[in-house]
Amino acid sequence: MRSPVHGTARLLSGAGLAAALLLPAAPAHALPPSVLPAADGQGQRLPGMPATLDADAGQTACTPASGEKAKKQDWSRQRLDLDRLHRHGTGAGVTVALVDTGVVAGATGLDGRVTAQGAAGVDCVGHGTFLAGLIAGDGGGTPGLAGVAPRARILALRGTDERGRADADLVAEAVRDATRAEAGVIAIAVALPRRDAGLSSAVAEARRAGAVVLAAATPDPPSRGAGDEIPARTYWPAGEPGVLSVADMLPNGARPDGSLRTGGIALAAPGAGVVSGGPRGDGHYLGGGASVATAYAAGAAAVVRAAHPGASPAVVTRRLTATAYPGDVPQLDPYAAVTAVLGDAAGATGGRAGSDPVSLRDTSAADRATGRATLFVLLGSAAVLCVLWAAFAVPRARARGWRAAGAGEPDRG
């Protein structure tokens, strides 16, 4: 005869299995962060793309061409589900102004869709060209490495000196140039430690003109030195009102080790072990940092603007944040941003900024199913408790001849 304890154990095992089946599974694309510094998350080892060059290295020492090519799609594009996104939108007709180190117009994957103003047509560092590939590159013969908005146009603007060091005056002038050019999206890939009145004014003017403005939440961390030694602070222009502040993340959603600390982050996007091209040759590099995440978010904004041409900048921003994957910082989901249904039709046609709620697909049926499953687990748990009580109480009651506890016992007083 089986003991009550054995039967109870079987019930507990069954209840545990049922509960486990109801728990959400971890994303299949989560990768150990430890592989990212040396590779792109798929084991592809490529040279790194610097954000700045050593000021003492000489004026002619630019980033050399890469002799390596990625052989498959990296984790970041898989995470953003770009293959599915491109069936719904590619950013055609939208101009993204990129404020960084410049962009080489004839770079692989960008030929014919880049306009560079002044010195921005020269990119010694290579970082701006790398980011442009993430925003609007067509993959250069490797479709799996296309950018988020492969039919958008890039307006290249220089916000740094030739070695990649950011300058507030240069960034402010670049933003003003982007506004005059009527860019639909302005991506500022640099971050400054101090607020600048001229830059604040330029950003406010760009927003009034109808541009979606995004900026890196922090500078890319230095190649030497730990980011946790630098106190948390606000960086600019990411801290300006109405600017979408974007931070970098690993495949598990966490920020990379050594990331500079800040507050007010609105959105996170892939920013480690990301593959893109450069200004010279057709090889590939690995890059990371908040600037990379900003490029991805800017590409998503371009696709949203193309798919919803009547949406105000506030509605575009709202789509990017409200449809993001939940986390400590919302994680960019471009497909959801494009396909989500706006609850207020007036907002989609340029209504008052910030007043347009975003309604996702009707999930009432799924919610009812979840409620039933939860009720099932609760009832099952109650049944298990009853069985445990019975396994404990019945043998004791039988031993007393089914008399109540204390009944018939002699008076020991």
UniProtKB/TrEMBL annotation:
Give the signal peptide range: 1-30
What does the UniProt keyword field contain?
Hydrolase, Membrane, Protease, Serine protease, Signal, Transmembrane, Transmembrane helix
Where does the Peptidase S8/S53 domain lie? Answer: 91-324
Instruction: Give the residue spans that cross the bilayer.
Output: 373-394
Active site residues of this protein? 100, 127, 291
Give the start-end ranges of region Disordered.
36-76
* Alphabetical list of Pfam families matching this protein: Peptidase_S8
PANTHER family per the record? CEREVISIN-RELATED (PTHR43806:SF11), PEPTIDASE S8 (PTHR43806)
Per the similarity annotation, which family is this?
Belongs to the peptidase S8 family.
Give the protein's recorded name: Peptidase S8/S53 domain-containing protein
Q: What is the lineage of its organism?
A: Bacteria, Bacillati, Actinomycetota, Actinomycetes, Kitasatosporales
